[in-house]
Amino acid sequence: GGDLTTVTLHHRGGGLSTITSSFTAPVALPGETAFFGARGKLVLPPSPDFFAEVKEGYARALAALAGEAPDAASVLRLDARFGAKITRIIAAAHESMASGRRVEIN
Q: What is the bridge-based pairing of β-strands 40-43 and 5-10?
């Protein structure tokens, strides 16, 4: 068996989002990255170099966390509270998978 995990997040405003992850997935997976909203669906174009984009994204996030990105303050608010919130989400997802029930986060 594989390690594919999908978590569905129900947001206060009624929206849904999903996080799908795998450490053992093959390089090329079919599918799309899309955002759904009141105006419909927005599909991102396929990435010509996924791994380069991932490295760039991580580099930007780390620079913002370290306060080195020139626009970090205006784009993202990454601080201890944000990190604690992400940790609560991951812990709730783990609890939900272990218990087989929905877990609410406040």
A: unpaired
